[in-house]
Amino acid sequence: MRRLFDTPVADTGIDSDHIVSGVAFWSAVCLPFVQLSLLAGGLDSRRGLTVLALLFVLNVLALVAGHQYRRE
Q: Transmembrane stretches, by residue range (predicted)?
């Protein structure tokens, strides 16, 4: 069965799975800082709470997608 991101990027030999997992990994590292700054600024509206919840869901998805990054 062929994987979704199985083709090499240009002629570098880096497959797109590695790029996707790398972006997901570093997003999972950085998103909590965005969430903390949002919390520090205060959640004074329903929109702020919705944004925080969406960032949390995005962080969980990034953790799942990036958990294999740089594992040998």
A: 20-41, 48-69
pTM of structure? 0.73
Helix H, strand E, coil C: the string for 29-46 is: HHHHHHHHHHHHHCCCCH
Is residue 71 situated within a structural domain?
no
CA distance to 4, 13, 24, 28, per residue, from 58 (Å)? 21, 29, 10, 8
* Tokens representing residue 72 in the block: 């040998």
Could you give the CA distance from residue 31 to residue 68 in angstroms, rounded to a whole number? Answer: 18
pLDDT band at residue 42 using 50, 70 and 90 as cut-offs: confident
Half-sphere exposure of 44 (CA within 13 A, CB side): 3
